[in-house]
């Protein structure tokens, strides 16, 4: 077990053990958002599947309207009307004819352009066309969006609304995806009271359970369970063992420091988990423990809400990226200019909740200790102040990690 590790090395230790998940399953397209594709998706048809009109107007042969101008229009016989949904193969245009046509409707055989109805007299029997058009003006070609058998979506890509639209656009209702990591969240601490119950003296409401699970859901991995465990080493060991039956990752909060009820150490020992590291040289969340039990990674975060939250971002997101191959989990680093001074008291690398906007970095009003939760509101990044640095001054350029 490594005691006191740099963040970079802590990440290395985690990533070494964060194996890529290769199990696949079929899901309905409507439920596929956030999964990564486990198959290449090829177009099963041309899109559009037939040449179609992009305007409401008249399908014509461009040679029949050559030289037409207002005052000297081309006059054509209206041979019929074609609506979106009609079969274009059933219509064929002859010289001197026009078809009334709607947006999205198939072109009749032989027509090579559609004239907007605003450029005509909107005639029913015959139509006066006041404008000349080149062949293929206002003409959507079959397959112009994509051709049958072309690669539309590559295996491994994350499915968002756009991919779901594309899948529906080729008529798919199901798709093969990689299963997401199974995560179980356990909060610990006898002082915790679950929201909805009256708060007894000395107790506090459990906010970590909600915050951690909600953040995981926001990131795209809804935890399988969120539960609370009392401060009993044997009890927690049993809970961890049960959770590890199917979990790829167990996230715990609280009980990782040196207090008499900091039970993670004892519980992990009873469980027989291999402790990989304890204590990262950063603030907040210094006493984080990372251990492994069988194939399950156990990330034990500090009970202090900001310690838990910051370490979830810094340690779990890279692990999720490695397990899924999905770069959407990675944190984005930006550079910004400090709007005010910030006083850093610790020697280690420090992450501070902050607001990044238009290249400027500012802070919420209030306190920033790792036990404070109120000032998380509105923050969208973690300011990264390197080890050894002291105060950071207004006007300085700094690095922030976007949440
Ligand atoms: N003698 C020392 N004391 C402490 C050290 C140290 O090095 N030597 N480290 C401090 C640091 S840094 C941190 S961080 C905390 C970590 O403590 P634990 O992870 O063991 O967490 P707890 O003691 O269980 O809780 C800390 C704090 O957070 C509150 N908490 C816990 N769980 C929740 C929850 N689910 N929702 C809301 N709040 C929660 C808890 O009541 C405590 O106030 O240790 C320092 N001490
Ligand atoms: O490392 Mo702790 O989260 O600062 O208070």
TrEMBL record:
<keyword id="KW-0500">Molybdenum</keyword>
<keyword id="KW-0479">Metal-binding</keyword>
<dbReference type="InterPro" id="IPR036688">
    <property type="entry name" value="MoeA_C_domain_IV_sf"/>
</dbReference>
<comment type="function">
    <text>Catalyzes the insertion of molybdate into adenylated molybdopterin with the concomitant release of AMP.</text>
</comment>
<keyword id="KW-0501">Molybdenum cofactor biosynthesis</keyword>
<dbReference type="Pfam" id="PF03454">
    <property type="entry name" value="MoeA_C"/>
</dbReference>
<dbReference type="InterPro" id="IPR036135">
    <property type="entry name" value="MoeA_linker/N_sf"/>
</dbReference>
<comment type="similarity">
    <text>Belongs to the MoeA family.</text>
</comment>
<keyword id="KW-0808">Transferase</keyword>
<comment type="pathway">
    <text>Cofactor biosynthesis; molybdopterin biosynthesis.</text>
</comment>
<dbReference type="InterPro" id="IPR001453">
    <property type="entry name" value="MoaB/Mog_dom"/>
</dbReference>
<keyword id="KW-0460">Magnesium</keyword>
<dbReference type="InterPro" id="IPR036425">
    <property type="entry name" value="MoaB/Mog-like_dom_sf"/>
</dbReference>
<protein>
    <recommendedName>
        <fullName>Molybdopterin molybdenumtransferase</fullName>
        <ecNumber>2.10.1.1</ecNumber>
    </recommendedName>
</protein>
<dbReference type="Pfam" id="PF00994">
    <property type="entry name" value="MoCF_biosynth"/>
</dbReference>
<dbReference type="InterPro" id="IPR005110">
    <property type="entry name" value="MoeA_linker/N"/>
</dbReference>
<feature type="domain" description="MoaB/Mog">
    <location>
        <begin position="184"/>
        <end position="322"/>
    </location>
</feature>
<dbReference type="InterPro" id="IPR038987">
    <property type="entry name" value="MoeA-like"/>
</dbReference>
<dbReference type="Pfam" id="PF03453">
    <property type="entry name" value="MoeA_N"/>
</dbReference>
<dbReference type="InterPro" id="IPR005111">
    <property type="entry name" value="MoeA_C_domain_IV"/>
</dbReference>
<dbReference type="GO" id="GO:0061599">
    <property type="term" value="F:molybdopterin molybdotransferase activity"/>
</dbReference>
